[in-house]
Input
Amino acid sequence: MTRFVDVHNMVRWVARTGTQTIISEMMDYLEDDFRRWESFDKTPRVASHTPFGVIELMPTSDHETYGFKYVNGHPSNPARGFQTVTAFGVLADVHNGYPTFLTEMTLLTALRTAATSGMVGRRLARPDSSVMAMIGTGSQSEFQALAFKAALGITTLRVWDTDQAAMAKLLRNAAPLGFDVHIASSAADAVQGADVITTCTADKANATVLSADMICPGVHINAIGGDCPGKTELDAAILELGEVFVEYTPQTRIEGEIQQMPADFAVTEFCQVLAGGAAGRSTPEQVTIFDSVGFAIEDFSALRYVRDAVQGSDFFEEIDLVANPEDPKDLFGLVGALSPVG
Output
């Protein structure tokens, strides 16, 4: 039997546990897996691009457990009453290939993206950071705010979006969570005095939501919106202002902010910071840039975390996902006796 966490149970579990608690605990799972980065199979995600959006598969394995996520990205969906991103994920036993765990990942992807940002932020942002600017206030924004609250204690947000309703939504949701939210008049206004800048816009375009003249010394830029070919958020000149950290370089060169740069543009994989092979932030004045596109190992960590967290609870059910004949060689026997003759 395969354990299954559907949307209803995922929502119940998050409500019972607490969003910030989950993000904080998931950061530890992510760090554990990033520290053993070399033990994983790694490949850029398999993407099917259409004029409507993209559908992707994100697989990885540590040779004991295999995991993958199915995820879409359709920026025009909200105007048609659909979400921009939906997803589900699977863990399987490498030894026999049987799926052992299946869960919704639309909500879980938001949690894991935020947890990844927080994990990186607590290593690359200044420890005394207190203000975060957020450019883009869509589905990710509240989760990102809670991640930096968990990682650095940030409770002051300066936000900007071209969608006034999205900013009102963030204000409505974030104020009860203990955030002081300032609605800015522009992106330039939002970043004034910010220690961390998160960009999380949805449009599939080579946009410039931040220009180099907006960036002050010491800031950490958490760029999470550029996640497919032809989609960027940062002025390319920003990437020259500090050190750029990525998840998996071959994928980020295709999909991240660095797709704007020459193929030999130097970046640092964040796993090297955790392994001690590369420095993170070295001075208070340094500009650090996390060019995040999302990677399969992060989904693997999130799936592991949820699987472990719901163990022994009522937040999952068991489903009969794999046909299992008494004789492993007689699959037809499951249907033969029931099939009409002739």
Remarks:
- The chain has two domains: 2-107+297-327, 117-294.
- The two ends are 34 Å apart (CA to CA).
- The domain at 2-107+297-327 is CATH 3.30.1780.10 (ornithine cyclodeaminase, domain 1).
